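hey so i finally got around to running the thing on that chain from the lab meeting. sorry it took forever, my laptop kept dying and i had to restart like 3 times. anyway pasting the input first so we r on the same page abt which one it is
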Amino acid sequence: MPQRGIADPERVYERLRQKLGEDIALQFETTLRRLAEQWSLRHNQNRDSRWIPLIRNLLAVERLRGRCQLVVGNPPWVRIHNLEPILRERVYNDYAFCKTAGWKRGTELAGITTGFARQTDYSVAFIERGLELLRPSGVLALVVTSKIQQALYASALREHFVNRCQILRLVDFSLYERPLFFEATNYPLVFAVRKERPDAKQKTTVIIFNRIGEPRTYQLPQSELPLFADDPQSPWLMAPPEVIAAFRKMQEDNPLLGELVKPRMGVKTSANHLFLVCRVEPSDDPNEVVVGMESGELVRIERSLLRPLLRGENIHAWRFEIREWILWTHNDKTGEVLKDLPPRAKEYFERHADALRRRSDYRSKQPIWTIFRVSPEKLGDKVVWQKISNKMDAVYVPRTFEDQTVVCIDSVYFIPAKTRDVGLAIAAWLNSLPLRTYISAYCERLRGSYFAHHAWTVACLPVPRPILRLWEGKKRDLKLVRQMIEISEKMHENPDRSDCDKLECELACIVAELYGLSDDEFEALKRYWDFVQVQVPSQRQGNLGGESDDSEGEEEQAVFE
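ok and heres what got predicted. didnt touch it at all, straight out
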Protein backbone atom coordinates (compact mmCIF):
# COMPACT_ATOMS: atom_id res chain seq x y z
CA MET A 1 0.00 0.00 0.00
CA PRO A 2 2.57 2.61 -1.13
CA GLN A 3 1.83 6.24 -0.29
CA ARG A 4 3.82 9.43 -0.57
CA GLY A 5 4.13 12.10 2.04
CA ILE A 6 2.64 11.83 5.53
CA ALA A 7 0.15 8.97 5.92
CA ASP A 8 -3.19 9.66 7.54
CA PRO A 9 -4.65 6.74 9.61
CA GLU A 10 -8.21 7.48 8.46
CA ARG A 11 -7.23 7.41 4.79
CA VAL A 12 -5.28 4.18 5.37
CA TYR A 13 -8.34 2.62 7.01
CA GLU A 14 -10.51 3.60 4.04
CA ARG A 15 -8.04 1.95 1.67
CA LEU A 16 -8.12 -1.19 3.82
CA ARG A 17 -11.93 -1.20 3.79
CA GLN A 18 -11.97 -0.93 0.01
CA LYS A 19 -9.40 -3.68 -0.45
CA LEU A 20 -10.87 -6.18 2.00
CA GLY A 21 -14.56 -5.55 1.41
CA GLU A 22 -17.37 -4.08 3.49
CA ASP A 23 -18.27 -7.34 5.28
CA ILE A 24 -14.74 -7.87 6.61
CA ALA A 25 -14.34 -4.17 7.43
CA LEU A 26 -17.43 -4.19 9.62
CA GLN A 27 -16.51 -7.44 11.35
CA PHE A 28 -12.94 -6.38 12.16
CA GLU A 29 -13.29 -2.59 12.27
CA THR A 30 -11.57 -2.10 15.63
CA THR A 31 -8.63 -4.26 14.64
CA LEU A 32 -8.30 -2.67 11.21
CA ARG A 33 -8.31 0.86 12.64
CA ARG A 34 -5.50 -0.13 15.04
CA LEU A 35 -3.58 -1.60 12.13
CA ALA A 36 -4.11 1.59 10.14
CA GLU A 37 -2.64 3.61 12.98
CA GLN A 38 0.37 1.31 13.28
CA TRP A 39 0.99 1.21 9.54
CA SER A 40 0.72 5.00 9.28
CA LEU A 41 3.22 5.38 12.07
CA ARG A 42 5.62 2.95 10.40
CA HIS A 43 5.15 4.69 7.03
CA ASN A 44 5.92 8.05 8.56
CA GLN A 45 9.09 6.53 10.07
CA ASN A 46 10.12 5.12 6.66
CA ARG A 47 9.39 1.54 7.81
CA ASP A 48 6.88 0.40 5.17
CA SER A 49 6.18 -3.30 4.47
CA ARG A 50 3.77 -5.35 2.39
CA TRP A 51 0.90 -5.69 4.87
CA ILE A 52 -2.15 -6.33 2.70
CA PRO A 53 -1.10 -9.85 1.56
CA LEU A 54 -0.20 -10.70 5.14
CA ILE A 55 -3.51 -9.61 6.63
CA ARG A 56 -5.41 -11.29 3.81
CA ASN A 57 -3.63 -14.58 4.58
CA LEU A 58 -4.28 -14.23 8.30
CA LEU A 59 -7.97 -13.66 7.75
CA ALA A 60 -8.13 -16.61 5.36
CA VAL A 61 -6.70 -18.86 8.06
CA GLU A 62 -9.07 -17.42 10.66
CA ARG A 63 -12.02 -18.41 8.46
CA LEU A 64 -10.84 -22.04 8.60
CA ARG A 65 -11.38 -22.34 12.36
CA GLY A 66 -13.41 -25.48 13.07
CA ARG A 67 -13.72 -26.39 9.39
CA CYS A 68 -10.65 -28.52 8.51
CA GLN A 69 -10.71 -32.28 8.17
CA LEU A 70 -6.89 -32.56 8.10
CA VAL A 71 -4.13 -30.25 9.33
CA VAL A 72 -0.51 -31.23 8.69
CA GLY A 73 2.76 -29.40 9.12
CA ASN A 74 6.09 -28.85 10.82
CA PRO A 75 5.71 -25.89 13.19
CA PRO A 76 8.76 -24.07 14.57
CA TRP A 77 10.45 -25.62 17.61
CA VAL A 78 11.73 -22.73 19.71
CA ARG A 79 12.21 -22.57 23.47
CA ILE A 80 10.00 -19.83 24.87
CA HIS A 81 12.88 -17.81 26.33
CA ASN A 82 14.24 -17.31 22.81
CA LEU A 83 11.10 -15.45 21.68
CA GLU A 84 10.65 -11.70 21.85
CA PRO A 85 9.05 -10.63 25.16
CA ILE A 86 5.83 -9.41 23.47
CA LEU A 87 5.36 -12.69 21.62
CA ARG A 88 6.29 -14.69 24.72
CA GLU A 89 3.61 -12.86 26.72
CA ARG A 90 1.03 -13.47 24.01
CA VAL A 91 1.81 -17.20 23.93
CA TYR A 92 1.32 -17.49 27.68
CA ASN A 93 -1.83 -15.35 27.73
CA ASP A 94 -3.64 -16.66 24.65
CA TYR A 95 -2.89 -20.39 24.59
CA ALA A 96 -4.30 -22.66 27.30
CA PHE A 97 -1.62 -25.34 26.84
CA CYS A 98 1.01 -22.70 27.67
CA LYS A 99 -0.95 -20.70 30.24
CA THR A 100 -1.46 -23.79 32.42
CA ALA A 101 1.89 -25.42 31.59
CA GLY A 102 3.88 -27.18 34.29
CA TRP A 103 3.31 -30.64 35.68
CA LYS A 104 2.36 -29.88 39.28
CA ARG A 105 2.90 -33.37 40.68
CA GLY A 106 6.38 -33.55 39.17
CA THR A 107 7.43 -30.19 40.59
CA GLU A 108 6.09 -31.12 44.02
CA LEU A 109 7.96 -34.44 44.03
CA ALA A 110 11.21 -32.72 43.07
CA GLY A 111 10.71 -29.70 45.30
CA ILE A 112 11.27 -27.28 42.41
CA THR A 113 9.36 -24.16 41.43
CA THR A 114 6.92 -24.03 38.55
CA GLY A 115 9.11 -21.49 36.73
CA PHE A 116 11.24 -24.17 35.12
CA ALA A 117 8.20 -26.35 34.51
CA ARG A 118 6.62 -23.59 32.37
CA GLN A 119 9.60 -23.14 30.03
CA THR A 120 7.45 -24.25 27.13
CA ASP A 121 8.26 -24.73 23.46
CA TYR A 122 6.71 -22.48 20.80
CA SER A 123 5.43 -25.55 18.92
CA VAL A 124 2.94 -26.21 21.74
CA ALA A 125 1.00 -23.08 20.74
CA PHE A 126 0.88 -24.31 17.13
CA ILE A 127 -0.49 -27.68 18.28
CA GLU A 128 -3.30 -25.93 20.16
CA ARG A 129 -4.00 -23.74 17.12
CA GLY A 130 -4.05 -26.79 14.85
CA LEU A 131 -6.71 -28.42 17.03
CA GLU A 132 -8.82 -25.24 16.82
CA LEU A 133 -8.80 -25.44 13.02
CA LEU A 134 -10.19 -28.99 13.01
CA ARG A 135 -13.81 -29.92 12.64
CA PRO A 136 -15.08 -32.73 14.92
CA SER A 137 -13.38 -35.99 13.91
CA GLY A 138 -10.69 -34.04 12.01
CA VAL A 139 -7.06 -35.19 12.21
CA LEU A 140 -3.99 -33.20 13.25
CA ALA A 141 -0.62 -34.59 12.09
CA LEU A 142 2.56 -32.67 12.91
CA VAL A 143 6.32 -33.08 13.23
CA VAL A 144 7.33 -31.55 16.57
CA THR A 145 9.90 -31.94 19.30
CA SER A 146 9.60 -35.29 21.06
CA LYS A 147 9.99 -33.50 24.38
CA ILE A 148 6.23 -32.91 24.49
CA GLN A 149 6.02 -36.57 25.58
CA GLN A 150 8.11 -36.03 28.72
CA ALA A 151 8.82 -32.37 29.49
CA LEU A 152 7.17 -30.73 32.47
CA TYR A 153 5.93 -27.87 30.29
CA ALA A 154 3.74 -30.12 28.11
CA SER A 155 1.49 -31.31 30.94
CA ALA A 156 -1.69 -29.56 29.74
CA LEU A 157 -1.11 -30.74 26.18
CA ARG A 158 -0.70 -34.36 27.29
CA GLU A 159 -3.83 -34.20 29.43
CA HIS A 160 -5.86 -32.85 26.50
CA PHE A 161 -4.55 -35.52 24.13
CA VAL A 162 -5.20 -38.39 26.55
CA ASN A 163 -8.66 -37.28 27.72
CA ARG A 164 -10.12 -35.49 24.71
CA CYS A 165 -8.46 -36.84 21.56
CA GLN A 166 -7.84 -40.18 19.92
CA ILE A 167 -4.07 -40.55 19.68
CA LEU A 168 -3.75 -42.49 16.45
CA ARG A 169 0.01 -42.72 15.98
CA LEU A 170 3.29 -41.70 17.63
CA VAL A 171 6.54 -42.09 15.69
CA ASP A 172 9.47 -41.28 17.98
CA PHE A 173 12.93 -40.61 16.52
CA SER A 174 14.37 -39.06 19.68
CA LEU A 175 16.95 -41.79 20.34
CA TYR A 176 18.12 -42.08 16.75
CA GLU A 177 21.69 -40.89 16.27
CA ARG A 178 21.15 -39.71 12.70
CA PRO A 179 19.39 -36.31 12.73
CA LEU A 180 16.30 -35.99 10.56
CA PHE A 181 16.97 -32.28 10.10
CA PHE A 182 20.63 -31.73 9.37
CA GLU A 183 22.76 -28.98 10.89
CA ALA A 184 20.39 -28.74 13.84
CA THR A 185 20.05 -30.52 17.15
CA ASN A 186 16.62 -32.11 17.08
CA TYR A 187 14.60 -34.89 18.66
CA PRO A 188 11.66 -35.41 16.29
CA LEU A 189 8.25 -36.85 17.00
CA VAL A 190 5.61 -37.40 14.32
CA PHE A 191 2.11 -37.66 15.77
CA ALA A 192 -1.44 -37.95 14.49
CA VAL A 193 -4.49 -37.32 16.68
CA ARG A 194 -8.20 -37.25 15.89
CA LYS A 195 -10.38 -34.54 17.42
CA GLU A 196 -12.75 -36.97 19.06
CA ARG A 197 -12.99 -38.25 22.61
CA PRO A 198 -11.45 -41.70 23.11
CA ASP A 199 -13.33 -44.67 24.47
CA ALA A 200 -11.92 -47.28 26.84
CA LYS A 201 -10.77 -49.43 23.92
CA GLN A 202 -8.83 -46.68 22.12
CA LYS A 203 -5.36 -47.87 21.14
CA THR A 204 -2.35 -45.95 19.88
CA THR A 205 0.12 -47.25 17.35
CA VAL A 206 3.64 -46.43 18.53
CA ILE A 207 6.86 -46.70 16.54
CA ILE A 208 10.10 -46.03 18.39
CA PHE A 209 13.55 -46.02 16.83
CA ASN A 210 16.70 -46.88 18.77
CA ARG A 211 20.08 -45.24 18.28
CA ILE A 212 20.94 -47.19 15.09
CA GLY A 213 17.52 -46.67 13.53
CA GLU A 214 15.96 -50.05 14.30
CA PRO A 215 12.19 -49.60 14.72
CA ARG A 216 9.91 -51.30 17.19
CA THR A 217 6.17 -51.08 16.48
CA TYR A 218 3.42 -51.90 18.93
CA GLN A 219 -0.12 -50.95 19.90
CA LEU A 220 -0.85 -49.62 23.34
CA PRO A 221 -4.09 -48.67 25.10
CA GLN A 222 -4.09 -44.88 25.07
CA SER A 223 -4.84 -44.79 28.79
CA GLU A 224 -1.56 -46.62 29.46
CA LEU A 225 0.61 -43.86 28.00
CA PRO A 226 0.93 -41.71 31.19
CA LEU A 227 3.63 -42.61 33.69
CA PHE A 228 0.99 -42.57 36.43
CA ALA A 229 -2.28 -44.12 35.29
CA ASP A 230 -4.30 -41.72 37.47
CA ASP A 231 -2.52 -38.61 36.18
CA PRO A 232 -3.03 -37.82 32.47
CA GLN A 233 -0.63 -34.86 32.77
CA SER A 234 2.30 -37.11 33.64
CA PRO A 235 5.05 -37.94 31.11
CA TRP A 236 4.40 -40.71 28.63
CA LEU A 237 5.97 -44.14 28.89
CA MET A 238 7.56 -44.85 25.53
CA ALA A 239 7.72 -48.60 25.97
CA PRO A 240 5.80 -51.69 24.74
CA PRO A 241 2.74 -52.88 26.70
CA GLU A 242 4.47 -55.87 28.31
CA VAL A 243 7.18 -53.52 29.64
CA ILE A 244 4.59 -51.05 30.96
CA ALA A 245 2.87 -53.96 32.71
CA ALA A 246 6.13 -54.61 34.56
CA PHE A 247 6.38 -50.92 35.43
CA ARG A 248 2.87 -51.00 36.90
CA LYS A 249 3.96 -53.89 39.10
CA MET A 250 6.96 -51.81 40.25
CA GLN A 251 4.60 -48.96 41.16
CA GLU A 252 2.21 -51.08 43.23
CA ASP A 253 2.09 -50.07 46.89
CA ASN A 254 5.52 -48.42 46.74
CA PRO A 255 6.16 -44.78 47.69
CA LEU A 256 7.87 -42.44 45.25
CA LEU A 257 11.37 -41.27 46.05
CA GLY A 258 10.28 -37.63 46.04
CA GLU A 259 7.87 -38.42 48.87
CA LEU A 260 10.84 -39.47 51.02
CA VAL A 261 13.60 -37.07 49.99
CA LYS A 262 14.05 -34.38 47.35
CA PRO A 263 16.84 -34.95 44.82
CA ARG A 264 19.09 -31.93 44.70
CA MET A 265 21.55 -30.18 42.39
CA GLY A 266 25.09 -29.25 43.44
CA VAL A 267 26.26 -25.74 44.29
CA LYS A 268 26.40 -22.95 41.73
CA THR A 269 29.15 -20.33 41.36
CA SER A 270 27.75 -18.49 38.29
CA ALA A 271 31.44 -17.77 37.56
CA ASN A 272 33.25 -21.09 37.30
CA HIS A 273 36.28 -19.47 35.70
CA LEU A 274 36.89 -17.54 38.94
CA PHE A 275 36.28 -20.42 41.38
CA LEU A 276 37.40 -23.64 39.70
CA VAL A 277 41.01 -24.76 39.85
CA CYS A 278 42.50 -26.95 37.12
CA ARG A 279 45.96 -27.54 38.62
CA VAL A 280 47.80 -27.01 41.88
CA GLU A 281 51.55 -26.42 42.31
CA PRO A 282 53.46 -26.11 45.61
CA SER A 283 55.06 -22.84 46.68
CA ASP A 284 57.93 -21.92 49.01
CA ASP A 285 55.35 -21.47 51.78
CA PRO A 286 53.68 -24.74 52.90
CA ASN A 287 50.48 -22.82 53.68
CA GLU A 288 50.17 -21.45 50.16
CA VAL A 289 49.94 -22.93 46.67
CA VAL A 290 50.03 -21.67 43.11
CA VAL A 291 46.83 -22.59 41.28
CA GLY A 292 45.83 -22.51 37.64
CA MET A 293 42.25 -21.24 37.38
CA GLU A 294 39.76 -22.35 34.74
CA SER A 295 40.14 -18.85 33.30
CA GLY A 296 43.83 -19.50 32.67
CA GLU A 297 44.93 -17.12 35.40
CA LEU A 298 47.73 -18.21 37.77
CA VAL A 299 47.10 -17.29 41.41
CA ARG A 300 49.05 -17.75 44.61
CA ILE A 301 46.52 -18.48 47.32
CA GLU A 302 46.08 -20.04 50.75
CA ARG A 303 45.94 -23.84 50.67
CA SER A 304 43.12 -23.83 53.26
CA LEU A 305 40.62 -22.70 50.62
CA LEU A 306 41.05 -25.69 48.29
CA ARG A 307 38.41 -28.41 48.25
CA PRO A 308 38.05 -31.41 45.90
CA LEU A 309 35.47 -30.71 43.18
CA LEU A 310 33.11 -33.23 41.60
CA ARG A 311 31.70 -32.50 38.13
CA GLY A 312 29.02 -34.51 36.36
CA GLU A 313 31.45 -35.66 33.66
CA ASN A 314 33.61 -37.31 36.33
CA ILE A 315 30.81 -39.51 37.68
CA HIS A 316 30.44 -43.10 36.54
CA ALA A 317 28.60 -46.13 37.85
CA TRP A 318 30.22 -47.14 41.15
CA ARG A 319 33.09 -44.61 40.97
CA PHE A 320 33.94 -40.93 40.78
CA GLU A 321 37.09 -39.04 39.87
CA ILE A 322 38.50 -35.89 41.44
CA ARG A 323 40.32 -33.94 38.74
CA GLU A 324 39.76 -30.36 39.85
CA TRP A 325 39.35 -28.24 42.94
CA ILE A 326 37.25 -25.27 43.98
CA LEU A 327 38.16 -22.17 45.96
CA TRP A 328 35.79 -22.85 48.83
CA THR A 329 34.56 -19.73 50.64
CA HIS A 330 31.96 -21.34 52.90
CA ASN A 331 31.85 -23.24 56.17
CA ASP A 332 32.36 -27.00 55.64
CA LYS A 333 29.55 -27.98 58.01
CA THR A 334 26.90 -25.26 57.99
CA GLY A 335 27.45 -24.07 54.43
CA GLU A 336 27.39 -20.42 55.54
CA VAL A 337 29.56 -18.02 53.55
CA LEU A 338 32.70 -16.85 55.36
CA LYS A 339 32.55 -13.23 56.49
CA ASP A 340 36.25 -12.73 55.79
CA LEU A 341 39.02 -14.53 53.88
CA PRO A 342 42.79 -14.91 54.24
CA PRO A 343 44.69 -11.99 52.65
CA ARG A 344 45.74 -13.54 49.32
CA ALA A 345 42.27 -15.01 48.67
CA LYS A 346 40.59 -11.76 49.63
CA GLU A 347 42.85 -9.77 47.30
CA TYR A 348 42.13 -12.22 44.44
CA PHE A 349 38.34 -11.97 44.75
CA GLU A 350 38.41 -8.18 45.21
CA ARG A 351 40.41 -7.96 41.97
CA HIS A 352 37.41 -9.58 40.24
CA ALA A 353 34.75 -7.75 42.25
CA ASP A 354 32.91 -6.29 39.25
CA ALA A 355 32.46 -9.68 37.57
CA LEU A 356 31.38 -11.29 40.84
CA ARG A 357 28.75 -8.62 41.48
CA ARG A 358 27.32 -9.03 37.97
CA ARG A 359 26.31 -12.64 38.66
CA SER A 360 22.53 -13.09 38.33
CA ASP A 361 22.21 -14.81 41.73
CA TYR A 362 24.28 -12.21 43.58
CA ARG A 363 22.61 -9.92 46.14
CA SER A 364 24.15 -6.63 47.27
CA LYS A 365 24.58 -7.53 50.96
CA GLN A 366 26.44 -10.77 50.25
CA PRO A 367 30.23 -11.08 50.31
CA ILE A 368 31.43 -10.96 46.71
CA TRP A 369 32.94 -14.47 47.06
CA THR A 370 29.54 -16.04 47.85
CA ILE A 371 28.79 -19.40 46.20
CA PHE A 372 25.08 -20.03 45.62
CA ARG A 373 22.71 -22.79 46.74
CA VAL A 374 25.00 -24.09 49.45
CA SER A 375 23.33 -26.09 52.25
CA PRO A 376 24.49 -28.60 54.88
CA GLU A 377 23.00 -31.64 53.07
CA LYS A 378 25.06 -30.79 49.99
CA LEU A 379 28.21 -31.20 52.07
CA GLY A 380 27.36 -34.56 53.63
CA ASP A 381 27.31 -38.19 52.46
CA LYS A 382 25.35 -38.54 49.25
CA VAL A 383 24.51 -40.65 46.20
CA VAL A 384 25.29 -38.71 43.03
CA TRP A 385 24.69 -38.96 39.28
CA GLN A 386 25.23 -36.72 36.28
CA LYS A 387 22.22 -35.29 34.47
CA ILE A 388 23.18 -36.09 30.87
CA SER A 389 24.24 -39.70 30.31
CA ASN A 390 23.30 -42.73 28.25
CA LYS A 391 22.06 -44.54 31.36
CA MET A 392 21.58 -43.90 35.05
CA ASP A 393 25.08 -44.12 36.58
CA ALA A 394 25.16 -43.54 40.32
CA VAL A 395 27.90 -43.69 42.95
CA TYR A 396 28.02 -43.26 46.71
CA VAL A 397 30.24 -40.30 47.69
CA PRO A 398 31.25 -39.93 51.35
CA ARG A 399 31.45 -36.49 52.91
CA THR A 400 35.23 -36.25 52.61
CA PHE A 401 37.89 -37.25 50.11
CA GLU A 402 41.41 -37.40 51.55
CA ASP A 403 40.06 -35.67 54.67
CA GLN A 404 38.60 -32.73 52.74
CA THR A 405 34.94 -31.92 52.11
CA VAL A 406 33.83 -32.91 48.61
CA VAL A 407 31.96 -30.15 46.78
CA CYS A 408 29.59 -31.06 43.94
CA ILE A 409 29.04 -28.47 41.22
CA ASP A 410 25.67 -27.91 39.56
CA SER A 411 26.21 -30.49 36.81
CA VAL A 412 25.78 -33.08 39.58
CA TYR A 413 22.51 -34.29 41.10
CA PHE A 414 22.36 -36.14 44.39
CA ILE A 415 20.31 -37.69 47.16
CA PRO A 416 21.52 -37.16 50.75
CA ALA A 417 22.46 -40.45 52.42
CA LYS A 418 21.61 -40.86 56.11
CA THR A 419 24.20 -43.60 56.61
CA ARG A 420 26.85 -45.41 54.59
CA ASP A 421 24.61 -48.47 54.24
CA VAL A 422 21.79 -46.29 52.93
CA GLY A 423 24.16 -44.69 50.43
CA LEU A 424 25.46 -48.04 49.19
CA ALA A 425 21.94 -49.47 48.89
CA ILE A 426 20.55 -46.43 47.01
CA ALA A 427 23.51 -46.44 44.59
CA ALA A 428 22.97 -50.16 43.90
CA TRP A 429 19.23 -49.63 43.40
CA LEU A 430 19.81 -46.79 40.90
CA ASN A 431 22.45 -48.80 39.01
CA SER A 432 20.22 -51.85 38.63
CA LEU A 433 18.74 -52.90 35.30
CA PRO A 434 15.07 -52.59 36.42
CA LEU A 435 15.60 -49.00 37.56
CA ARG A 436 17.63 -48.01 34.52
CA THR A 437 14.95 -49.42 32.26
CA TYR A 438 12.12 -47.78 34.18
CA ILE A 439 13.62 -44.29 34.16
CA SER A 440 14.70 -44.45 30.51
CA ALA A 441 11.08 -44.97 29.43
CA TYR A 442 9.87 -41.54 30.58
CA CYS A 443 12.81 -39.18 31.12
CA GLU A 444 13.62 -36.62 28.44
CA ARG A 445 15.49 -38.14 25.52
CA LEU A 446 18.51 -36.73 23.73
CA ARG A 447 19.67 -38.06 20.39
CA GLY A 448 21.89 -41.14 20.45
CA SER A 449 20.22 -42.88 23.42
CA TYR A 450 21.21 -40.18 25.89
CA PHE A 451 18.84 -39.13 28.66
CA ALA A 452 18.38 -36.11 30.93
CA HIS A 453 18.09 -37.34 34.52
CA HIS A 454 16.49 -34.26 36.08
CA ALA A 455 15.61 -34.04 39.75
CA TRP A 456 11.91 -34.59 38.98
CA THR A 457 12.75 -37.63 36.85
CA VAL A 458 14.50 -39.40 39.72
CA ALA A 459 11.91 -38.17 42.22
CA CYS A 460 9.27 -40.22 40.32
CA LEU A 461 11.01 -43.56 40.97
CA PRO A 462 9.03 -46.06 43.09
CA VAL A 463 11.01 -47.20 46.14
CA PRO A 464 10.67 -50.86 47.20
CA ARG A 465 9.39 -51.24 50.74
CA PRO A 466 12.53 -52.99 52.07
CA ILE A 467 14.71 -50.06 50.95
CA LEU A 468 12.21 -47.73 52.61
CA ARG A 469 12.62 -49.67 55.85
CA LEU A 470 16.41 -49.30 55.64
CA TRP A 471 15.93 -45.57 55.07
CA GLU A 472 13.75 -45.37 58.18
CA GLY A 473 16.32 -47.24 60.27
CA LYS A 474 14.25 -50.40 60.68
CA LYS A 475 15.95 -53.80 60.71
CA ARG A 476 13.28 -56.29 59.64
CA ASP A 477 12.93 -57.91 56.21
CA LEU A 478 16.27 -56.58 54.95
CA LYS A 479 17.87 -59.79 53.68
CA LEU A 480 17.74 -58.78 50.01
CA VAL A 481 18.80 -55.22 50.81
CA ARG A 482 21.83 -56.57 52.71
CA GLN A 483 22.76 -58.53 49.62
CA MET A 484 22.51 -55.33 47.58
CA ILE A 485 24.81 -53.54 50.03
CA GLU A 486 27.39 -56.34 49.80
CA ILE A 487 27.37 -56.14 45.99
CA SER A 488 27.57 -52.35 46.17
CA GLU A 489 30.60 -52.52 48.48
CA LYS A 490 32.43 -54.82 46.08
CA MET A 491 31.60 -52.69 43.05
CA HIS A 492 32.62 -49.45 44.77
CA GLU A 493 35.93 -51.02 45.79
CA ASN A 494 36.72 -52.07 42.21
CA PRO A 495 34.23 -51.39 39.39
CA ASP A 496 36.56 -53.16 36.92
CA ARG A 497 36.68 -56.44 38.81
CA SER A 498 36.56 -59.60 36.72
CA ASP A 499 33.17 -60.68 38.07
CA CYS A 500 31.44 -57.29 37.68
CA ASP A 501 28.99 -58.60 35.04
CA LYS A 502 28.01 -61.45 37.31
CA LEU A 503 27.51 -59.11 40.28
CA GLU A 504 25.38 -56.71 38.25
CA CYS A 505 23.23 -59.62 37.03
CA GLU A 506 22.74 -60.70 40.65
CA LEU A 507 21.85 -57.14 41.56
CA ALA A 508 19.26 -56.95 38.76
CA CYS A 509 17.62 -60.15 39.98
CA ILE A 510 17.55 -58.92 43.57
CA VAL A 511 15.88 -55.63 42.60
CA ALA A 512 13.39 -57.49 40.39
CA GLU A 513 12.54 -59.68 43.39
CA LEU A 514 12.12 -56.60 45.61
CA TYR A 515 9.46 -55.41 43.17
CA GLY A 516 7.83 -58.83 42.92
CA LEU A 517 8.46 -59.11 39.16
CA SER A 518 7.85 -62.46 37.51
CA ASP A 519 10.43 -64.09 35.24
CA ASP A 520 8.45 -63.02 32.17
CA GLU A 521 8.20 -59.42 33.37
CA PHE A 522 11.92 -59.32 34.13
CA GLU A 523 12.73 -60.72 30.67
CA ALA A 524 10.52 -58.05 29.07
CA LEU A 525 12.55 -55.36 30.83
CA LYS A 526 15.82 -56.90 29.64
CA ARG A 527 14.65 -57.09 26.01
CA TYR A 528 13.56 -53.46 26.04
CA TRP A 529 16.81 -52.37 27.67
CA ASP A 530 18.84 -54.22 25.03
CA PHE A 531 16.82 -52.47 22.31
CA VAL A 532 17.38 -49.01 23.79
CA GLN A 533 21.07 -49.58 24.57
CA VAL A 534 22.00 -51.38 21.34
CA GLN A 535 25.61 -50.78 20.37
CA VAL A 536 26.45 -48.94 17.17
CA PRO A 537 28.17 -51.28 14.67
CA SER A 538 31.78 -50.25 14.20
CA GLN A 539 31.41 -49.70 10.45
CA ARG A 540 28.74 -47.03 11.11
CA GLN A 541 30.36 -45.18 13.97
CA GLY A 542 32.01 -42.70 11.66
CA ASN A 543 28.66 -41.62 10.23
CA LEU A 544 26.63 -41.23 13.41
CA GLY A 545 27.13 -38.58 16.01
CA GLY A 546 26.37 -38.86 19.71
CA GLU A 547 24.50 -36.23 21.63
CA SER A 548 25.28 -34.61 24.94
CA ASP A 549 23.64 -31.22 24.49
CA ASP A 550 22.54 -29.58 27.75
CA SER A 551 20.79 -26.52 26.41
CA GLU A 552 18.20 -26.49 29.20
CA GLY A 553 20.55 -26.58 32.15
CA GLU A 554 20.56 -22.85 32.78
CA GLU A 555 16.78 -22.64 33.09
CA GLU A 556 16.61 -25.42 35.65
CA GLN A 557 19.55 -24.09 37.63
CA ALA A 558 17.99 -20.63 37.73
CA VAL A 559 14.84 -21.80 39.53
CA PHE A 560 15.88 -25.05 41.14
CA GLU A 561 15.44 -24.16 44.77
